[in-house]
Amino acid sequence: MPGTAFHYHKLFLNDGLITSGAYKLTLEMFFQNFLNALQWGSFYALIALGYTLVYGVLLLINFAHGDIFMVGAYIGFFIASFFLGSYAFHLPFALSGNVIFVFTVIITMVLTAGVGVTIERVAYRPLRKKGAGRLYVVITALMCGLVLENGNLALLGASRKSFPDLIEKSIYTIGGVTFTNIKILVIVTTILVFLFLEAIVRKTKIGMAMRAISYDRVAVLLMGIPLDIVIVFTFILGSSLAALAGILFVTAYPVLEPYMGAMVGWKAFIAAVVGGIGEIRGAFVGGFILGFIEIYVAAVFPSTLRDLIAFAILLLLLSLKPTGIFGIARAQKI
Amino acid sequence: MLKIENLHVRYGNIEALHGISLYVDDGEFVALLGANGAGKSTTLMSIMRLFPPEAPIVKSGTITYKGNDLIPVQPHLVVAKHGIGLVPEGRRIFGNLTVYENLKIATYARKDFNRISNDYEKVFSLFPKLADRKNQRGDTLSGGEQQMLAMGRAFMCGAKFILLDEPSMGLAPLLMQDLFKVLKELNETGTTIFVVEQNAHIALKYAGRAYVMETGNIVMEGSAAELAHNEEIRKAYLG
């Protein structure tokens, strides 16, 4: 896994927008990094939302979630390649890259949600029905992640794949700050997803049920609410968001490999905890905090120190507020 | 009507109910009395079909409601399909939801949308305090208000039959009286009530009929008036 960290680190530098070494801390650099941090934080936020949703409902740390992100990226790769006619199948009409992108996103989110729900069905639900302790479920989640990673390795081999350019990249420069349409797409999508989730959880009955389950699962049953349906709904939301993150990620950094979800997944999980796990705002804010710390640390210090400093800051945040930024300590229910 | 016949249940290997039989007719107000550990809550949990460790496993016997066998029914369907609601021991309201959300979530499975708004009005008129605190989080309520909310919630489920587990627990005597008056009112407007109580005094004052449990058996039954004058009951439960 340390290898993968290095890999992203390189990717990240290859973005060409930050060059460690000769850094001038000008105002332009500040805003340039601000945008980069928003994009980088968006990936963490989108993945962290999935961790936090599942935790909020099941009190389960779904360690397979980072790998769901990877699966989403791969499914997206195959769907996009399919539409581009790479598999001896040609659409009778030509679709523009943008249209293919939209179809790819939708189909991938649906299929990846299916993968998430399947994992819940075959791995977590049987344990839940047998009343297994939380430790066993967490270990099961870890193993599901490893099965996904190594299953991918076995099926597709270790060679990397390169995600096709579906969206034509436009580069804009405003006042010395350079950004691409893809960067804007990532940031805006993440904000919309956040607002959408907040609305679901605050305003709809199933959203209320999701919040209520974390507080008292038995009382939810007494309200006539089918627990399993709420849980499946949660996995659909979390997994489809991981798929969205996966496609956006490979659109920005078009390299796919089986372990791409591992390190990003861990970091997004940490972001969710720092924000206050179980809280949607927490995942969102935690993701951006981690994005900002990583980008600005890399802009100021030699980038080999990035993770060291980033995680030292997060440790400090947690020791100041162990429940995370938005988390509320709650008495353990009997 | 709810009918339990010769019900044996167990927690693990320990039998908790040793063949109890009871019935509650539609429209009745029935109390189940007994000391701590007599099996009163166990009886309610068995009716609601909750899973272990909350509830016991049925070994033998039958539980039927309006002629339907309840034993294979899933707990959420006991509420949503059969219309039996439970106000659990300790209230178990959702502290992280507002009062209004606590009531709204109870309507999750209801399809009779035109009656839901009437039911909100009824709950708020029975418990004006809940209307005042509508947008407050559940965990900021006092014990009495939480009990009101738990009762309102069971009503909002659309339940025609409400089971209550120790509703008077931890409440001041005056508040207890108020809550039982509301139960009486609900009962008179068509809701069947089955209440488990340690406080035999108050239960016998409002109920029409009662059962007395001891260590997993029903040891006495009769009209509330009859039991209130029974020498043994007076000694054991009424002091």
Structure overview:
The complex is a heterodimer of chains A (334) and B (239). Residues 1-23 of chain A have low confidence and may be disordered. Chain A has a single domain, classed as ABC transporter involved in vitamin B12 uptake, BtuC. In chain A, α3 (65-83) crosses α10, α4 packs across α5 (134-156) and α10 (260-275) crosses α11. Chain A is globular and about 55 Å long. In chain A, a hairpin with a 2-residue loop joins β2 (171-174) and β3. Chain A has helices spanning 2-14, 27-58, 65-83, 97-129, 134-156, 181-203, 205-215, 217-222, 227-252, 260-275, 280-300, 306-320, and strands at residues 161-162, 171-174, 177-180, 255-256. In chain A, the strands form 2 sheets. In chain A, strands 1-4 form a two-stranded antiparallel ribbon. Chain A starts with a helix and ends in a 14-residue tail after the last helix. Chain A has 334 residues and is mainly alpha-helical. The longest helix of chain A is centred in the middle third of the chain and has 33 residues, at 97-129. Chain B has a single domain (2-94, 154-238), classed as 3-Layer(aba) Sandwich (Rossmann fold). Chain B is 38% helix and 28% strand. Chain B is built from 10 helices and 10 strands. The model of chain B has no long low-confidence stretch (mean pLDDT 93). Chain B is an alpha/beta fold and 239 residues long. In chain B, 47% of the residues are buried. In chain B, α3 (99-105) runs parallel beside α6. The chains are: A mainly alpha (334), B alpha/beta (239). The interface between A and B is medium-sized, with 21 and 32 residues.
